[in-house]
Amino acid sequence: MTTDDTFLNVPDCVPARMVNEYAYCPRLAYLEWVQGEFMDSADTVEGRFRHRVVDQEKGSLPAAAAAPAPDTESAGEPGADETIHARSVWLSAVEESLTARIDLLEGAAGEVTPVDYKRGAAPTGCLPEGAWETDCVQLCAQGLVLRANGFTTGGGVLYYVESKTRVDVPFDDALVAHTRELTRAARHMAEGARIPAPLADSPKCVRCSLAPICLPDEVNLLAGGDTAASDSDERVRRLMPARDDALPLYVQEQGARVGKSGEVFEAWLKDRKLGETRMFETSHIALLGSVQITTQAVSEALDRGIPVAYFSMGGWFKGLTHGPAHRNIVLRMAQYRAAFDPVRSLALARGFVAAKIRNTRTMLMRNHAALNEEIPVTLAQLAQESLAAGGEVTLLSIEAQAAKAYFGAFSGMLKVRGAEADWPFDFNGRNRRPPRDAVNALLSFAYSLLAKDFTVLAQVIGFDPYLGFYHHPRYGRPSLALDMMEEFRPLVADSVVLTVINTGVLVAKDFVQRGPAIMLTPGGRRKFLQAYEARLDTLITHPVFGYRISYRRVLEVQLRLLGRVLTGELDEYPGFVTR
């Protein structure tokens, strides 16, 4: 089955707000309604604040055929005409395929006027109607719902909060027909389960809160096949913040507990507070070893969509606690189809491995003191061979050859500091489970952190993080996260390891021997986590799109682009390869 064969059973009624969104941008309506995506911006937060009064259900609405009942907000002498004044009224009309929550209803004796509150200012001088088309169709949808429920309504009112302007909108035949057509089109879009194309260079995208999810300019660029970035200019508009304000909370003190107090998460060790972080600034919580978290804190994290990640004391990533799965079932269906299609899985795996090999080559060429000139040639050749690998076994063999060449030269990127006899960072090849030297301990911990970050992001975006295309499913292993981190192992994880060694951030006393294993002390782990998070916050120029963006954002962009490939919007996954 292909994406084109997928059809969804959509609800009987389209929300009136989605008719508004569809009129504004069909892709935005699809992201919000079908995929369940949402992201706050300053505009959405302000809109909720200004909308807070009419969001409170208040007043009564009598049945259309009955005499209006007295209302808590109505006043008058006995026997006088009673008025209808009800807030936040929810009605549906299956015959119109519409449902609506109406901010305010005004009227009397069965004839009512819906009033819809809007955050901004009314347009001045540019529209003869005095209101935006999208707002008019949303209001008309409310009117159609009221009519289907037996009420008489000839028009509504748009109230623009910023300019304190009331705009009368008559429900004439043309507006009614247009609203019904938009409703049918929105249903058809949702049933087809195929995301509409992004707007092209539209000013609407600039203030859209979903631009970092939609990636309109990025998708248009890649769909056009133009992927050669300029060295000096941004190729596309960067419609997302360069850095993410939300950061993880790490707690590693053994015996510590994480709780909540008001709007903050707090970490305590017995009666001593270790630290705190505001909830809205927390991307996820990472607990290392024997650290507890209270039920209240977990409940709050689930309500806010903040995952809780668990590590062993040695830094091995064990799993996540998170809320219900993301609503984007279309993405997971596409992921499952691709994962069980050997041809598509191999094509994706080739891209992951080729990008990884090219990035290891770049790392060596940038950082090795006296690199054998044959190694870059070998790695470049292996990257090309990986793109043409005829099967999984061949691809695994190519990756192994590249890893042998890379780690065989890895020690040349390490700079001896101090007395060589006291230097703890001798490296003679990769070993793990457990790592038997300091360098391998750092590499393993860095890869574990990177796997955690991709697992969290995959869960947030709507993927199944445990089903990949190159790494086979295994109980408890986030295979998709391991796939996606391949190209970032050298650029993020290995780079952090080189930094903490070559700059003297970590020294011999930051490690402890436990039998054959070497591991970081709590103090050493703290310093490494700081260096790792600093690397994720580093701004780089995106090699394809040309804008400045942090590595933390790049991880998210790459996952979202993978989603566009799986759902058929893009033909090929664009691996992240630095220059």
Short description:
The protein has helices at residues 16-24, 26-34, 42-50, 133-148, 173-192, 211-214, 216-223, 295-303, 329-339, 342-367, 374-387, 392-408, 438-461, 479-485, 489-502, 522-536, 551-566; strands at residues 14-15, 84-93, 98-108, 111-118, 155-160, 165-170, 247-251, 257-261, 264-269, 272-278, 282-288, 292-293, 308-311, 317-321, 511-514, 517-520, 539-541, 548-550. It has 579 residues and is of the alpha/beta class.
The CATH superfamily of the largest domain appears as CRISPR-associated endonuclease Cas1, C-terminal domain
Classified by CATH, the class of the largest domain is Mainly Alpha
Our Rg estimate from Cα atoms comes to: 28 Å
Could you say which structural class the secondary elements and strand pairing correspond to?
alpha/beta
Mean pLDDT: 84
Number of helical segments?
A: 17
Write up this protein.
This protein has 579 residues and is of the alpha/beta class. The chain contains 17 helices and 18 strands. It has helices at residues 16-24, 26-34, 42-50, 133-148, 173-192, 211-214, 216-223, 295-303, 329-339, 342-367, 374-387, 392-408, 438-461, 479-485, 489-502, 522-536, 551-566, and strands at 14-15, 84-93, 98-108, 111-118, 155-160, 165-170, 247-251, 257-261, 264-269, 272-278, 282-288, 292-293, 308-311, 317-321, 511-514, 517-520, 539-541, 548-550. Strands 1, 2, 3, 4, 5 and 6 form a six-stranded mixed β-sheet that branches. The chain has a four-stranded mixed β-sheet with strand order 7-11-13-14. Helix 10 runs parallel beside helix 12, helix 13 packs across helix 14 (479-485) and helix 13 (438-461) packs across helix 17.
